[in-house]
Amino acid sequence: MIYFDNGATTFPKPRSVVNAVERTMRYYGANPGRSGHKMSLKASEIMYDCRKNAAEFFNADSPENIVFAYNCTTALNFVIKGILKEGDHAVISSLEHNAVLRPLESMKENGVEYSIADYSPDDEETIDNFRNAIRPNTKLVICTHASNVFGVKLPVERIAALCRIHGVLFCVDAAQTAGVVPISLKDSCIDFLCTAGHKGLYGPMGTGILAINSEILPESLIQGGTGSFSSDRKQPSILPDRYESGTPNLPGIAGLNEGIKFVMKKTERNIEKYESDLALRLYQKLKKIPGVLLYTDSPKPHRSVPVISFNIDGLDSEETSTILDKRFNIAVRAGLHCAPLAHEFFGTQDSGTVRTVLSVFSTREQVDYFASSIMTINKFKKELKKVAIDI
Amino acid sequence: MENNLIMFNSVTLAMRAREILGKNNVFSSLIRTPVNLRNRSCGYSLFVKSDFAKAIEILSKNRITYLGIASVDAQ
To answer: Which chain B residues are Cβ-neighbours of A232 within 8 angstroms?
Structure first.
């Protein structure tokens, strides 16, 4: 199968990731940070090594500033619900994922309000929209680094600087950019960086990271055993224990560690270049097919990540993806991609889009086969529509 | 008996301390804090066989906080 659904999770994973998960399950399956025996200490070392590599990767202050979460959504919830209190206001972009939108919507019941600042292809306009949305009681701005549907990047460094000027905390959702776009926390005004471990970092599912670059810390949402301060009934305030209660996903973190090392070895610049070249090739081929609807300009490394959304005129996005799967053995995602705001902005809320996201394992041959498959579907869409309906 | 143990609140901090000491050529071992020193907490410690004063100096210089120091029987 040709797998272009890397925006949901990357596949395949590097061999080193698979081996690390297996090795941990086989030989180091003790609970880290709890006991003093050799296997538990080895498990703790695996956790620490991943924390250290993640800190280096994101240029964070120290390994303690890396908090393991179960995915990007959990990390975002840690920040949103841990920072905002009754009477607070937040600002988000018009391209946010439900991982940001839904926690904020639920917090309306707790007296938290939020505003949406529109994305614009013109960065100046985007910055103005964020500036205008900030109120005296704005406590937190949350912004995706790049749209998970359309791939367009937001000027997060400039939004971060704007937030610093206004004394507002700034959180970035880097689910689609970590591992593809270099991020340096120490060189930025980003306070909180949330990301998945299983996408561009090539780790297993069930892994995510909250990287903290702020003296102001969110309240902990989950309290419990941390292996530290056990006689104290209160949750430890130190990092990372403050947010890491209960047994962690050690095999996942061992895999994530190898995934991060894999990306570090290849370098994000090279990955970005490779994937962007492929994305551009795909975009140009799709652009030549008369019935294909594209929603953004051609992908450019500094303006977007290798995510391309499209539709075939006369077919629902779900129909196109089903035909791709059944007839051409190609995996893509269709629909709203958990980001209704982004679809409202691009006018695709009714049709959804077919989303292709490439990875370092994608090839030119796959891109060419994909484009020729779309050409065939477009040509025979009336006949192929039945394929989508047949079970 | 001279001090040879540095106690920490978390395994993460203990491991970072061990790493920093290692980079400065001070060898240390990660162990569970001995029960008589644990104060009902379940912390981790670094056992530093030699260069203890240097170890403390390095940790202070790197702003690594620790719970306390003690001496334990190396056996």
So the answer is: 41
Residues A239 and A274 placed together within one structural domain of the fold: no
Classify residue A211 as exposed, middle or buried by CB count within 10 Å of its CB (0-12, 13-18, 19+): buried
For residue A309, list its beta bridge partners.
A355
CATH of domain B5-70: 3.30.70.1530
Domain end position, chosen among A205, A239, A266? A266
Residue after which a domain boundary falls, among A266, A284, A300: A266
Whichever domain contains A168, its CATH number is 3.40.640.10
Please state, in angstroms and as integers, the Cα–Cα distance from residue A277 to each residue in A181, A207, A303, B64, following that order. Answer: 14, 28, 13, 45
- A251: CB partners within 8 A, 6+ apart: A20, A21, A24, A25, A29, A204
Give the pLDDT band of residue A391 (cuts 50, 70, 90). Answer: low
Record the pTM.
0.94
ipTM value, please give it: 0.86
Give the SS3 label for residue B21.
Answer: helix
Q: Is B62 on the interface with A (CB under 8 A)?
A: no
Q: Which residues of A touch B63 (CB under 8 A)?
A: none
- Judgement on whether residues A252 and A111 belong to the same structural domain of the protein: yes
- Judging contacts by C-beta atoms under 8 Å, the chain B residues touching residue A227 are 10-11, 42
**B42 contacts chain A (CB < 8 A):** yes
B23 interfaces chain A, CB cutoff of 8 Å: no
